[in-house]
Amino acid sequence: MAPVAAHSGTAEQQTSLKTPLLQKIQGRSRHLTREESRIRETWVYISTFTAVMGIAAQGFLMGYTSPVQKAMIDSLNLSVSEFSVFGSLITVGAMLGSIVSGQLGDWLGRKGAMVVATLPIIVGSALIAVAESKMPLYIGRLLSGAGAGIFSFIVPLFIGEIAPRHLRGTLGTMQQLANTLGIGLVYLGGLFINWRYLAASGIIPCLLCLVGITLIPESPRWLAKKEKAEELEAALKKLRGDKYDVSKELAEMQQTVEAAKLEPKAKFRDLFRRRLARPLIAGVGLQFLQQFSGINGVMLYASTIFSRAGVSNANMASLALGGLQVVMTVAAAGLMDKAGRRLLLMVSASGMALSSFLVGFTFYLTDVEEHSYSRGMNVFIDILALASLLVYIAAFSLGMGPIPWLLLGEIFPSQVKGAAGSMATLTNWSCAWIVTLAFNNVFEWSPAGAFWIFAVACVSTVFFVVLFLPETRGRTLEEIEASFNY
Q1: In a domain, 234, yes or no
Q2: Which PROSITE patterns does the entry mention (predicted)?
């Protein structure tokens, strides 16, 4: 990752500039101020909706393999291994996209990066729709993944930078909500639509995103970093409304940028220095644990899991899974700025740990004594497996789904946000690739073992949150940055 440009300055200069800013930030109340109550949130909502259309496309792409597996294998004469490679290539492409996402966001702005992200998804979806052999499938999946990787970092960054502090948690969950809606729509479409037309349908959210980008303002914090004063003021006024006095927020952003200029020139290795290592460990660690909780393995191959668990209509069960994820993500949106990030993460990870253990236990019972149970016992095992999977998805949607991405837009200092965010996003997609590529083989070897591995990762998450994650609810981005720096 290329270094972020900055200017040097003396210790006295840094202290004189930073100390008043820190005092000002720390003195701000976590509650909604009278001035903040005047904010008109219309354009914040429109901007958020536009951005998360890219995430809806990502969810559509991630869930695509579940309803079409049998149809694609039969149509193109693919082996299970070849289909597994096809499924996993989206994560390889996303790894590549995540590497450049920070640079694109810094160079082109958040809006420009989102425009770039839509292009490979459109091309990739079209290639999959017309493919007659495995190679176009692989190329299309790889391209689609690259766009998804860019979106996965730029969208939470953009939302975190445009949202007023009292809405940042709620709006941050819209990314996960859009992702689950995308998954739910592809599950629903898979019941009625040919796999080729279904692939082409993934272009629609990207087109909506492109239209919206022409209307919404750029991120004020990116404009402040680029010293575009007039555009910055105009963007803030559009996002906050005519009745809100933007002068204080404007001055705070500009002062933070000036303070960042006095920092030594940031390089990639600087991410591992003590002052920056704390947010990096928190951000990267959560991305790692989110993926090894097993969510992408479950969602990409939900139909296969349900079939193995004895559910008669696996595709309908998968659709119910996607619908539950939407409902629970809406619930999380209402709780995010009330319960806080830490509590929701711990509750979420605990619920996932218990449900993963129970799913694994039902598979263990089935594999050990498959033909020895009574009919009533077999029905009980099937119900327990289905209920545990539903609890797993509900718990994930409550915290482990939205919060790691929400924190990417909150915890990293502005001068290294691109590099640190790219590293965290790359970690997520790298782990997702490992999980999606290995899941089918591990699941065939031991369904119980696969879910017990996920349970261990979820238990580890609880301890990780206790040790490394600060609460960010109710704080401005400047306050969060200051809490790590001083």
Answers
A1: no
A2: MFS, SUGAR_TRANSPORT_1, SUGAR_TRANSPORT_2
- The pLDDT value recorded for residue 333 is 74
Q: Determine contact, residues 61/185, Cβ cutoff 8 Å.
A: no
Q: How far apart are CA 265 and CA 462, in angstroms?
A: 36
**Residue for token pair 């990787």:** 149
d(CA 242, CA 475): 24
Spatial separation of the C-alpha atoms in residues 406 and 161, rounded to whole Å: 11
Give the span between the Cα atoms of 461 and 345, in whole angstroms.
8
CATH number of residue 142's parent domain: 1.20.1250.20
- Spatial separation of the C-alpha atoms in residues 66 and 122, rounded to whole Å: 20
Contact yes or no for 301/66 (Cβ under 8 A): yes
Please identify which residue in the block is written with the tokens 């689609």.
144
Chain segment 334-344, per-residue pLDDT in tens:
777 677 788 99
Model confidence pLDDT, tens digit, residues 20-29: 444 443 444 3
Partner residues linked to 266 by β-bridges: 4
Dig out the tokens for 406 from the structure.
């929400």
Over residues 292-320, mean pLDDT: 69
The H or E element that residue 446 is part of is: none
Task: Dump strand ranges (E) for 281-415.
Answer: none
Q: Are 133 and 456 in contact (CB under 8 A)?
A: no
Range of the domain at 212: 38-216+263-485
pLDDT at 398 over 80: yes
CA angle 133, 136, 138 (to 5 degrees): 105
> What span, in angstroms and rounded, lies between the C-alpha atoms of 38 and 288?
39
* Average predicted confidence (pLDDT) for the chain: 81
Tally the domains of the chain.
1
Does 3 have pLDDT greater than 50? Answer: no
49 lies in a domain?
yes
Q: Is residue 120 assigned to a domain?
A: yes
pLDDT at 17: 43
* 431-448 pLDDT, tens digit each: 888 887 777 778 778 888
